[in-house]
TrEMBL record:
This is Receptor-like serine/threonine-protein kinase. It comes from Carya illinoinensis (Pecan). One of its GO terms (cellular component) is membrane. It comes from the Eukaryota. ATP binds at K451. Residues 1-23 form the signal peptide. Residues 704-724 have a biased composition (Low complexity). It is a single-pass type I membrane protein.
Length: 724
């Protein structure tokens, strides 16, 4: 049904040129159309002239189909202002304006042209469009004025609307109007007086969201144009010999397309809107979904309940639905979205579109603003693209039988029974400490990382679950979030948020990628890691000793914020919680430092040691364990210590950082790194000397989380780390 083109029902003007042959399709400045003369388009489909309607004697100037016996007027110039006698004259006056005068020279109607023409002519085209153009103008489609731009005489700027005739004898505007609402996400809207009556839904690429039947057909082709200059819907008849019209029908409040049937000499109804009850604007109120065939037709979306039981029955649903669980903006990071399918999208008054964002970016943008209630692709072609967001209540949703759209509606965490997950075991991101990590996508477009735990866990199922639930409660912006887990038989999956920019080691140890991370970015990352560690150590309700701090375990989100990953899972494999203490100690298998057995305090120190190493690696762009300096038997830390003592600490710094560095911040970092290490070693060995593992040793197997122990520890008070 393309009754949507109601909006662009062409204007039609037939002019008759006095003194010009009756078959003319143009008049010039010296000519005019009077009673008894007409303009006829070149191929003869349309005619412009004066006419009366029904029993009225009022005279109008307009355009009608010439080839059909039932007089069908498609455009009227003076619909508000009929001429009472036969004195009407249509002419281009000497200053180039198209005017309709009655005999006493009063102006009945005029066409406002965009500029003055030196040689203006008026022409009735085969499309039924009446145009005023300049004969001198090279481009014959550069119109000074055209009736297609003025489908009715309600006209405010670019906001054009089609309106009904009052009745079949009176073409003056009735109360039903139909036009495109120029919001950020435009849609066609039918008004009954000042009340919205029917919406098409926004354009989604192939059609209007609420018009699944608008698709390929033998009668007409259609298109929707939306750019910074103009927004319009347009159709072309495919077979020029088919005669078709679209008309606003005030009798039964609809917009109808008819096709002329020659054999019976009648107009046959092809389609019309509104189609059914559910097309009535906002029948079901906010968050209500209108479903033909359901009883009642209005159903609240999942997660919502009717606002007032009294009014929901029997037939007034206008108060709509409210959330079963309120949304709290403080928890917005825990919100998610439920996917609804087969819908006509909600009213777009408070909608926003960006054609170049993908669904994941769209989700993120929506999630970040509490008043964003829903999102979806703005274009459904080819699997979907672009982003449409809705702010505030979602109004006028209905189920459409075929070709409806997905809509992702914001929900508090408690309403999210997450439907996992389609992911592909080929889509491997890497191998972490306890299994391979894959990339996956949730139904609502959210990207996730899925870790498939290796089977060697000796832990009982219930213990595993308890552990995961505890860890899922760790919430800090510098920790990768565990979204859920999934257990079936031997298979254990952990679901994390996906980090677009992968791990820190892919930047700092890579010559080219390293340049992307200038000093200020590195410093930002250092501070973030420190905050994440502090949270694990002191602020979270569990006390967690991380023990596996290294560049490959620091992941980066799309804005290069660091998030520590891989925390806490190890315990599920070892079960070696330190007993008899109030603090839980969770470590990573294979990275249990020797002091693990000593006590919780020392465990904190061992993370601090790891932090010192990481800091040094970020400063230098070199791997601690891959360090080798010709002629020295020192390891990296020893080398750093020596440079520091010799007053040349900046020689440690990666050359690509030298331009962007803040000297004082950098010195502070070096100092923190060295100070931390030496004091931890001192505490461990009782000898207040050089940092741990000063002498070169066989480096432990570099990055495998399942190897040996990390060799040394150091001390640094966390308050110092936290220096901002
Ligand atoms: C032509 O018509 C326009 C619009 O009514 C009017 O402003 C203008 O004065 C007319 N020109 C002449 C020469 O009458
Ligand atoms: C022409 O322009 C005048 C002044 O802007 C406006 O009042 C009038 O409605 C316009 N007429 C038509 C037919 O567009
Ligand atoms: C166009 O329609 C006419 C009348 O229905 C028909 O005779 C003709 O074959 C059609 N032309 C095409 C190209 O379909
Ligand atoms: C408008 O609708 C009424 C009622 O359905 C119908 O009888 C009439 O023919 C329609 N008018 C036109 C011009 O199609
Ligand atoms: C208007 O009339 C047409 C044709 O008679 C019919 O198909 C349509 O359902 C009617 N619409 C309404 C809103 O009554
Ligand atoms: C639309 O999204 C693209 C890609 O995310 C972004 O570059 C652009 O700035 C966005 N445009 C607006 C107006 O937000
Ligand atoms: C959320 O979006 C609304 C609508 O675009 C805007 O008015 C508001 O300022 C935004 N709020 C925040 C916190 O960005
Ligand atoms: C980080 O990820 C975002 C989003 O995927 C991307 O636009 C950006 O270029 C990445 N940054 C770097 C330094 O690769
Ligand atoms: C109202 C008005 O001005 N009517 C005039 C219309 O033209 C005729 C003929 O020129 C005049 O006689 C009327 O006075």
């Amino acid at each position: 049904m393309d009754v949507y083109s109601c909006i662009f029902l062409g204007a039609n003007f037939l002019l008759f040129l006095s003194g010009v042959s009756s078959a003319a399709d143009t008049i010039t400045q010296s000519q005019s159309i009077i009673e008894g003369s007409t303009l006829i388009s070149r191929e003869g489909g349309f005619e412009l002239g004066f006419f009366s309607l029904g029993s009225s004697t009022n005279r109008y100037l307009g355009i009608w189909y010439r080839n059909i016996p039932v007089k069908t007027v498609v455009w009227v110039a003076n619909r508000r202002n009929p001429i009472e006698d036969s004195s009407g004259v249509l002419m281009i006056n000497s200053t180039g304006n198209l005017v309709l005068l009655s005999q006493n020279t009063s102006v009945v109607w005029l066409a406002n042209s965009t500029k003055e023409a030196s040689s203006p002519i008026l022409q009735l085209l085969d499309s039924g469009n009446l145009v005023l153009r300049d004969r001198e103008e090279g481009n014959s489609e550069n119109y000074l004025w055209q009736s297609f731009d003025h489908p009715s005489d309600i006209l405010t700027g670019l906001d054009r609307r089609l309106s009904t005739w009052k009745n079949w004898d009176d073409p003056s505007p009735g109360e039903l109007t139909w036009g495109i609402e120029l919001t950020n996400n435009p849609e066609a809207v039918m008004w009954k007086g000042s009340e919205k009556y029917f919406r098409s839904g926004p354009w989604n690429g192939p059609r209007y969201s609420g018009a699944p039947e608008l698709r390929y057909n033998p009668v007409f082709e259609f298109n929707f144009v939306n750019n910074e200059n103009e927004v319009y819907y347009v159709y072309h008849l495919i077979n020029k010999s088919i005669i078709s019209k679209i008309i606003m029908n005030q009798t039964n409040y609809s917009c109808e397309r008819y096709i002329w049937i020659d054999a019976t000499s009648t107009w046959s109804l092809y389609s019309s809107v509104p189609r059914d009850n559910c097309d009535d604007y906002n029948l079901c109120g906010a968050y209500g979904n209108c479903i033909i065939g359901e009883s009642p037709v209005c159903q609240c979306l999942k997660g919502f309940q009717s606002k007032s039981q009294e009014t929901w029955n029997p037939k007034d649903w206008s108060q709509g639905c409210v959330r079963i669980t309120q949304l709290s903006c403080q928890d917005k990071d825990k919100h998610g979205f439920i996917k609804f399918v087969g819908l006509k999208l909600p009213e777009t008054t408070n909608s926003w579109v960006n054609e170049s964002m993908n669904l994941e970016e769209c989700r993120t943008k929506c999630l970040n603003n509490c008043s964003c209630m829903a999102y979806t692709n703005s274009n459904i072609r080819g699997g979907g693209s672009g982003c449409a967001l809705w702010y505030g209540d979602l109004i006028d949703i209905r189920q459409v039988s075929l070709g409806g759209q997905n809509l992702y509606v914001r929900m508090p965490a408690s309403e999210l029974g997450r439907n996992l997950v389609l992911f592909n075991f080929n889509n491997k991101l890497g191998e972490g400490g306890f299994g391979a990590v894959y990339k996956g996508t949730l139904e609502d477009g959210q990207e996730i990382a899925v870790k498939r735990l290796s089977e060697s866990s000796g832990q009982g199922l219930n213990e595993f679950k308890t552990e995961v639930i505890l860890i899922a409660k760790l919430q800090h912006r510098n920790l990768v979030r565990l979204l859920g887990c999934c257990i079936q038989g031997e298979e254990k999956l952990l679901i994390y948020e996906y980090m677009t920019n992968k791990s820190l080691d892919t930047f700092i140890f890579d010559q080219a990628r390293g340049k992307v991370l200038d000093w200020s970015k590195r410093f930002h990352i250092i501070c973030g890691v420190a905050r994440g560690l502090l949270y694990l150590h002191e602020d979270s309700r569990l006390r967690i000793i991380y023990r596996d701090l290294k560049a490959s375990n620091v992941l980066l989100d799309s804005e290069m914020n660091p998030k520590i990953s891989e925390f806490g899972i190890a315990r599920t494999f070892r079960g070696d919680q330190t007993q008899g203490k109030t603090n839980r100690v969770i470590g990573t298998y294979g990275y249990m430092a020797p002091e693990y057995a000593i006590n919780g305090l020392f465990s904190v120190k061992s993370d601090v040691f790891g932090f010192g190493i990481l800091l040094m690696e970020m400063l230098s762009g070199k791997k601690n364990r891959a360090y080798y300096h010709p002629g020295e038997s020192l390891n990296f830390i020893g080398h750093a210590w020596n440079l520091w003592r010799e007053g040349r600490p900046l020689e440690l710094v990666d050359t690509c950082l030298r331009d962007s560095c803040s000297l004082s911040e950098m010195l502070r970092c070096i100092q923190i790194s060295l100070a931390g290490m030496s004091s931890v070693v001192m505490m461990l060995s009782g000898e207040p000397k050089e940092p741990g593992f000063f002498a070169r040793k066989n480096p432990p197997d570099a990055d495998s989380s399942s190897s040996k122990h990390q060799s040394s520890t150091n001390e640094l008070t966390l308050t110092l780390l936290e220096a901002r």
